[in-house]
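User: Can you help me understand a structure? I only have the sequence.
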Amino acid sequence: MKNRIILLLFICISTILLAQPPKREMRAGWLATVYRIDWPTTPMTTVNATNIAKQKAEFVAILDSVRAANMNAVFFQIRPESDAFYNSAYEPWSAHLGGSRGTNPGYDPTAFAIEEAHKRGIELHAWLNPYRFETSAKKYAGQSIDYKALHPEWILDYAIYNTDGSKKTDGITILDPGNPAVRKLIKNVVGDILSKYDLDGIIFDDYFYAYSGTNSTLDSYSQNLYKPANMTLSNWRRDNVNKMVADVYDTIQAVKPSVIFGVSPFGIWTTSTTVATANGLTLPTGITGSNMYEQIYCDPVAWLQQGKVDYISPQLYWTTTSTGQDYKKLCPWWSDVVNKYSKYFYSSMSLTALTSSYKVKQLLPEIPWSEAPADLHELKLYTRNGGILTGTTQTEQRVAAATNFDDSEVGLEIDWNRNSTKNAAPGSVFYSIKNLWTKGNFTKYLREQKFTSPALTPAIYWKNHLTLPEPTNISITGNTLNWDYLQQNVRFTIYAVPNLQVGTLGAFTNVTNLLGITYTNQFDLTKYTALIPTHKFAVAALDRYGNEFIPSYVTTSTEIQTEIYRISIINNALQLDLEYSTNIELYSLNGVLIDRQTTQGTYKKILEHGVYLLKIGIKIVKVII
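Assistant: Let's start by predicting it. Here is the structure, written out as tokens:
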């Protein structure tokens, strides 16, 4: 009995030790700038070198926190209120960046953010609010590019006014989704951004028509001009949003197709079984809450069906213990739906109610909550019944009705994301990013418990891309790994492979060998010099779609090899032309041996559609059929 207990304990410990995080996983954070929720903590009321340096230092601290957590992407809000945290050809500098709308901050925050993120191997995705103009009606009256004055027909005003024009009740203003001129503006804004910045992605959040509801006459101007007589009002409004999403996707494909595009809708698609059945879907059982299909006219399933997004990041801002919005039901349901249309699902998760028994020094000061309006989207939380929490007072941070949770709850949600994926492409997106440094040792928890190794973001492999060659002349000079590469706009993955693993199948699938990625032709080895005697460093090209190609090891004069094979894929046939007798091994993506032989001349294999690993001598090649 004692021996059995020891053996069982050994098996359990071994299982824990062998458990590894996935090599491919989106690990991102929402960086909110509206009302300076995450950044910057101080507006640029006076443009000078000191204030610019402060804002830049704060942003660098955020990126360092992201890297410390072994995360790989930041969703940076650059257009919160039809304004800009970048040099826009269409809209003014954001008031959330400077002292007032239109104030030039003296530098380009988006260009700076991209440069600093890429220095750290972090992807920078631009987060845009497509429709929102003002979080409070008349907020920008008379200021730079006041759309309500310049194009009143573009604006839907959700405030209620007295006869004298004063506000009776406050409300937001948005650009009218039903006006084609608005759709053209959004398309042009995205095209302008893509033409100027080396972004990795574009993402929209869940702000479409207002959460407060849109009465049947508020958009009467565009209804009269543009709504077909045979289309219901609800269907027409959803179609307006669908057309905008499609236009943005098509613009990205025309200008810079390697930029991935996603949308983050409300966590519950619809509560209507009729709608679900019409789309060939079954709703998860026991889920209650708001019907955003009808309330804000958001239909992410339509975007998936039309192939107009690369991924969906539903806001699953509930816990695994929630009864009406059970994370354990919503997460796998969304994963199944997204996989049905061969796209990716990255869950957005709220950290607002996260608590910790450990406290660390706060890197950045808290945002003064008194400055943020109670109905602001970025501050809303969801109660157990799925509604929007109305809040307490504006002088204190609102908390969820559900009980506060600790790090382990986030860990459970990450596990659900990983276990629910159907395409080896899990993802966790945290709202908001400041919780990395304001919630005790959360960053340390992620790095030590969940994100124990770096990870690559999932590859958008279905888009046309070139096959990239291997890096050459890889060498170590001092503490720097260097290599040559002729192609531009390429990233690289860096590996430290134990000497005993060199030439084995698992050398580059074992995530513990991955050191990180770089956007340049060099990598700092200062932290890894102790590995030089026992490991061999390798570099692989990683294109902007996320596809990784054949890696090469550090070379010496006796190790430089000449290419002795050519690979071609015609229909479902994999063909290799081999100049010399070579050992060939073909594996499935999960390591199951399919074929092994030693051959010279032509090797040919008919395969089903999928991803395979091909070992040619000591080199590992990923093959997509």
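Now, to help you interpret it: Residues 22-133+180-209+232-450 form a domain with the TIM Barrel fold (CATH 3.20.20.80). The first strand starts at residue 26 and ends at 31. Let me know which part you'd like to focus on.
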